[in-house]
Design brief:
mainly alpha; about 0% strand; Putative membrane protein; 6 helices; globular; about 80% helix; Four Helix Bundle (Hemerythrin (Met), subunit A); DUF420
Length: about 190
């Protein structure tokens, strides 16, 4: 199994990315009828943005710590941190897509000028980075899981991983800014 994954990392990355992005766009565009999704209590749906803000801050800390760990040669800590970051990302995305599928996107409650010149550009960059991260994360994850640690320097794991981690951290940070604009400032 490991060798077949190792030999097909780009293909598997593309397939997983297509499926993941289809799920994201399906949820955001309301492809799945609302009545087909079990509805959680209202209090839980209202708590999701706040939970996701906490998850985002935790992910920033975990990914930053994991990045620091690999810079100091702590491979086991790096792997554990990045897998934890991935788990947090999956939790964030699952909660976000669940809420959006049922409630739709949250309307910006602030002034139109702030919405136009601050909120929407930040939201757009956050969303684009999040979508760009998906194939990059799959790629480095598949490389890491299908190669022995000693062989990873011979792959693109380090080079692509730096890009993926930078974009991932930026996306999470901008997500916290979006949260603050929606739920704290306005």
């Amino acid at each position: 199994m490991e060798s077949s994954v190792r030999n097909n990392v780009p293909t598997l990355t593309a397939l997983l990315s297509i499926v993941s992005l289809a799920l994201v766009f399906g949820a955001v565009l309301g492809v799945v009828p609302e009545h087909a999704i079990p509805r959680a209590p209202h209090w839980f749906l209202e708590a999701i943005p706040h939970l996701n803000a906490i998850i985002s801050v935790a992910a920033i800390a975990v990914i930053g710590t994991a990045w620091h760990a690999i810079q100091h040669g702590h491979v086991v800590r790096h792997r554990a941190g990045m897998l934890t970051g991935l788990g947090l990302f999956v939790c964030f995305l699952g909660l976000y897509l669940y809420r959006v599928s049922l409630e739709g996107p949250t309307e910006f409650p602030g002034p139109k000028t702030v919405q136009q010149y601050l909120y929407l550009p930040i939201l757009a960059i956050h969303m684009v980075l999040a979508m760009v991260c998906i194939p990059l994360l799959y790629y480095v994850l598949l490389l890491a899981l299908s190669h022995p640690v000693a062989d990873l320097p011979k792959t693109n794991h380090r080079r692509v991983g730096r890009i993926a981690a930078s974009l991932w951290l930026t996306s999470f940070a901008l997500g916290v800014v979006v949260y603050a604009l929606l739920y704290v400032v306005y």
